[in-house]
C-alpha cells in the first residue's frame, strides 16, 4: 500500500497550530486531544507528530522511540481519563481506522481511545 502523506489534512494543521485543539496530553512525539464529535463520554484521539498516514505506515517506518512514545501516550491517556481495564466498572476501546474499508476520514494516523460507558460489540453486523 502506498503511504503518500497529505500535509493539508486537518490533524497536520492541528500539529502546526493552525487549528485549535483541546489537548489532553503532549509528549515528545505525540499529541492527544478530545475528538470534536465524541462518540462516548471519553473520546480522545492520540496522534504521532510524524507524517504517518496509518498504523501500518507507522509500524513500518517510525523509529523505535516514536513507537514507544505512541504506545505509552495511549496508556497515559487511559490513566488520565481513569479508564483502567482492570476496574470492574472501567475499561476502554482503542481503534485505528485505515483506508476506505476502515472508514478513515483523516489521513494522519490516529488512535481513538473510547470509554466512559459500555461500548457494545466491536462491529455492527450488516
Ligand atoms: P476517522 O474516521 O478518520 O478514524 O476519525 C476521524 C476523527 O476525527 C472523527 O472522530 C472526527 O470527529 C475527528 N475530527 C475531525 N476533524 C476534527 C477536528 O478538527 N478536531 C478534532 N478534535 N477532531 C476532529
Automatic annotation (TrEMBL):
InterPro entries: Histidine_triad_CS (IPR019808), Histidine_triad_HIT (IPR001310), HIT-like (IPR011146), HIT-like_sf (IPR036265). A motif (Histidine triad motif) lies at residues 108-112. One of its GO terms (molecular function) is catalytic activity. The active site is at 110 (tele-amp-histidine intermediate). It comes from the Bacteria. Residues 10-126 form the HIT domain. PANTHER family: HISTIDINE TRIAD HIT PROTEIN (PTHR23089). This is Histidine triad nucleotide-binding protein. It comes from Pelagivirga sediminicola.
